[in-house]
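Q: What changes when G3I is included in the input?
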Amino acid sequence: MVIDACHEERADQRPRLPVRRAFTLGVAGLLTAAGVLTLAGTASAASTLGGAAAAKGRYFGAAVAANHLGEGQYAATLDTEFNAVTPENEMKWESVESSRNSFNFGAADQIVSHAQGKSMKIRGHTLVWHSQLPGWVGGLGATDLRSAMNNHITKVMQHYQGKIYAWDVVNEAFQDGGSGARRSSPFQDKLGDGFIEEAFRTARAADPNAKLCYNDYNTDGQNAKSNAVYAMVKDFKARGVPIDCVGFQSHFNSQSPVPGDYQQNLQRFADLGVDVQITELDIEGSGSAQADSYRRVTQACLAVSRCTGITVWGIPDKYSWRASGTPLLFDDNYGKKPAYDAVLAALGGGGDGGGGGGGGRSCTVSYAETQRWGDRFNGQVTVRAGSSAISGWTVTVTLRSAQTVSATWNGSPSWDSSGKVMTMKPNGNGNLGAGASTSFGFTVMANGDWSAPTIGSCTAS
Ligand code: G3I
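A: The predicted holo structure follows.
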């Protein structure tokens, strides 16, 4: 295949150091610079939550507890179904810095290394929170507290530099109820409203590549609390205070159901120029009612292009912080609940593997860096039809934040509003017989980041 057919190069940009790094994956996987993100049991397209989410350019994560990782079924379910993790308690202040300036990262490191071994995204939770805060912090005066807060943020973020996709920099700083006021905490009471801004500025300096999120609950629909968070984010964006994302915890039950304006609320935050993420999803209940609520949440995220992923707050019901409400996707024996099926279907997975065309149509992708020179490199994605012929395919390519694409060939690209996610469809090369393949290519301006872009899984039609 001639992959450079419509690619023009200037003489001074010709490849000097050809590099070929090839990865292949099942349809339900993601490619990263670190290699293949394998989502075990992914023989067919999007047969897992992570695989199906990846096909939509999203991640699907779970809160994980280090002390369960040794349980075979727990680890197997995590590794098979999810492509992102959030340590449930292990990165909180009381866990990592129970005595001033003495850090213990043991349990959190266990989760990070497990996740890295599976090329999963990691959300860091959480740096500044009024809860699970050791007593010594509350005893400090303002000057000492400021320096302890900044030291905590800096040391924790630097320990995990390069490993964390997004940090919940500040968690739950607003009160419930109608006032939209700040919650009382040592930080709020002694440092005043400015503590959030200071925490975000310190966080950006500590790890400039991590996404910085504000995370809260009961902000899932439009109400006084979410309006107050919205005003803060708007102000931060206007004044250049670094903030990249807002987390919506989304703990739901019959008293606090999925709000009717959930999607609109996510969208209005996204419209401020931040990513939005569903960070701690659980919905009490069972059967089809629970499944319907999970479906709505999933559909809402998919409908908002800047909703980058969903994390459920645990794996089996028995380990949930609300275990008696059976709020998760797996029962106590790791059986898939109707809610699981609803989420997978909403993500386009299951059945024909999410290929979208039915009739067993599926495709796989593999990626190779084919050339590297000067300030850029060429990437090539090979699309291969599964056991049935296909008449179309869609693959997303997500660039690293520094990267841009200067040329593409053998495909028809479209871009999302961030300019970082390219959706590639055929350009006359959509019809593939069973097992047949085609390739498209692109030139990436590295701007200092030579990592492979993330290649989403292939959707066939
Ligand atoms: O590990 C100890 C154990 O050694 C001890 O025997 C036992 C006795 O109570 O406690 C265990 O620690 C508990 C820990 O969870 C681990 O299970 C703590 O008591 C308990 O308070 C802690 O609860 C966590 C809670 O945050 C604390 O606020 C939940 O697991 C965790 O799911 C929950 O997560 C929060 C998010 O961080 C923020 N948003 C809300 C969400 C749900 O509350």
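Observations recorded in class: Residues 1-45, 352-358 have pLDDT under 50 and may be disordered.
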